[in-house]
Design goal:
- Helices cover about 0% and strands about 40% of the residues.
- By secondary structure, it is an all-beta fold.
- The protein is built from 1 helix and 27 strands.
- The chain starts with a strand and ends with a strand.
- A 9-stranded antiparallel sheet has the order 10-11-12-13-27-23-22-17-20, with no helix packed on it. The protein has a 6-stranded antiparallel sheet with strand order 16-25-24-21-18-19, with no helix packed on it.
Length: about 325
Amino acid sequence: MTPFGTTAKGRREVHKITLSAGDLSVSLLTWGAVLQDVRLRGVDHPLTLGSDLLSDYEGDMRHHGSLIGPIANRISNARIRIDGMMYELERNQDGRIHLHSGAQASHLQVWDVVQATTDSATLRLSLPDGMCGLPGNRLITAHFAVSAPGTLTLTVTGETDARTPMNFANHSYWNLNGSTTFDGHMLQIAADRFLPGNADNYPTGEVADVAGTQMDFRTLRKVAVNTPPFDNNFCVADKRGPLRAVLQLRGTGGITMHMATTEPGVQIYDARDAYRPGRGPYEGLAIEAQGWPDAPNNSGFPSIMVDAGAVYRQITRWSFSRT
């Protein structure tokens, strides 16, 4: 564990933790539980988009690699009804929409280190009752583990003393080529359905069949900038379930990433408005395992509510190989 910087607000120390096993090396930050760097032995570039400056993560890169919660993605009307009570949330997108849990979200906090070894680390964050506009004293744990030959597993658990929504998502941007855009990558998603979005990039409420659309990635297909444009949830299941393979991303240089998750949705975002300093748009693909977005406003979507005393648990696993 090494110092990474001091936050501009609150002057809190942030640390970097590097884990390794087999051919894989992974670096984490205590700021936002950020997945800051992923390296495969024999490859001269990182596989995820990161920065060596804490100020970048406090600014325009606040979503790069971070663990976003308690509610990732958008709540269309910036309010949630829980047991008859309406909770007003921060309207941080266009003054109308709640995006990524607002200014108090988990990716804008310094997490505590519970344990750190050569191949695993556990981070913890407390969200007091009312934080992010939601009920419940919540305790969130993120456990990262690296295993040979090239696998990273993230397990997120949450406990609460009041009924509350939880929908955490790792928001890493992936570019397996080390190139200026994700052009040329091949993508496969085990989803028969997706959620069309509106002009504000939240779901219309329709659950659409991928067949005959540009969102059909049931077989490995090449992607390029705006071919297609991405900011959509792919419905890989109807509810959280056992860990299962859902996605493959393959670069032009022989590097492949397989992703498995317990989550019912995978959001793909093309980084059209996500910039690293000195870089352009579309540099990588955000691939976010999560519950379906805006679920509280769509009764047909899988629920993201967690009862008092119950344990929220999601697992996402990335496996990397090189041919």
